[in-house]
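Hi all, posting the design record for the shared folder.

TITLE: backbone redesign
STEP: 1 of 1
STRUCTURE INPUT:
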């Protein structure tokens, strides 16, 4: 009678352990599959290098996460104005004081303002008395640093141009070439050709510079040797991302679920549960 009473208990316990093993395996593998499918949309599995871990040769081709402030190896240089700034990207803006045609409802009026492109006054409804000078003698331009690294990995041009933020900087008048120093004066962080900067005249030029600030960034990109490049095969059509600060993967890609914790520990537990369940079933059948 004792053996008969043990049999259903052993069989029941064995079935419970086997079902627990199957459930744990299903939850773990399903979560891992969802995580891999989501990361594949952004270029593939992401290896977290953080701010200190160095890339290894066997990691080439993987998506990686790196954190740190960009290190400018060779600063951008505006040769025409002899201006150099320690920044990943330097942008020169050029504006001219011109006539603008302004429509407000049915009303039409003209005013002069700083505009960053030539305005063709011949197309105005009333061109007479509102003629603009035409093309700019100096053009706006962007200057990239020779090389920028984050956690010792060089940023490829697409990632370099995606760096966030901008700051106005003041040009150094001492560095201006003599011909430009004779034409421009410094006024509110701008170089202007106006004789009276507070009251510009038609055709006056205004030149200013913006930089991308050096700040802590989180960069996701594909590891290509010692460079970070976009994952061109990513389903999201981008294959990289850059955000200010130390950001986790889930912050940058909210559509990517968290991967299951301790995958291999879970798999080992599944094996132990399955083995224990099978042993109990065999013991119960013998009973």
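Okay, here is what came back for every position:
SEQUENCE:
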């Amino acid at each position: 009678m004792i053996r008969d009473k043990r049999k259903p208990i052993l069989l029941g316990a064995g079935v419970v352990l086997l079902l627990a093993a199957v459930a744990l395996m299903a939850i773990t593998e399903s979560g891992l599959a969802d995580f891999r499918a989501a990361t594949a949309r952004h270029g593939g599995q992401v290896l977290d290098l953080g701010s200190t871990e160095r890339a290894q040769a066997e990691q080439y081709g993987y998506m990686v996460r790196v954190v740190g402030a960009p290190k400018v190896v060779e600063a951008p240089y505006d040769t025409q104005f002899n201006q150099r700034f320690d920044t990943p990207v330097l942008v020169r803006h050029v504006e001219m004081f011109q006539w603008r045609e302004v429509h407000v409802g049915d009303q039409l009026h003209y005013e002069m303002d700083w505009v960053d492109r030539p305005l063709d006054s011949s197309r105005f409804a009333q061109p007479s008395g509102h003629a603009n000078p035409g093309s700019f003698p100096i053009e706006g331009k962007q200057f990239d640093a020779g090389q920028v690294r984050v956690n010792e990995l060089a940023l490829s041009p697409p990632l370099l141009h995606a760096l966030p933020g901008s700051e106005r900087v003041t040009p150094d008048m001492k560095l201006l070439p003599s011909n430009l120093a004779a034409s421009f004066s410094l006024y509110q962080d701008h170089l202007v050709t106006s004789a009276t900067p507070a009251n510009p005249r038609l055709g006056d030029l205004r030149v200013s510079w913006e930089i991308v600030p050096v700040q802590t960034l989180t960069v996701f990109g594909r590891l290509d040797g010692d460079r970070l490049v976009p994952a061109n095969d990513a389903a999201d059509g981008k294959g990289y991302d850059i955000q200010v600060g130390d950001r986790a993967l889930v912050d940058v890609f909210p559509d990517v679920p968290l991967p299951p914790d301790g995958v291999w520990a879970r798999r080992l537990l599944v094996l132990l549960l399955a083995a224990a369940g099978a042993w109990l079933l065999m013991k119960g059948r013998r009973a």
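COMMENT: The first strand starts at residue 46 and ends at 50.
Let me know if anyone wants the other runs.
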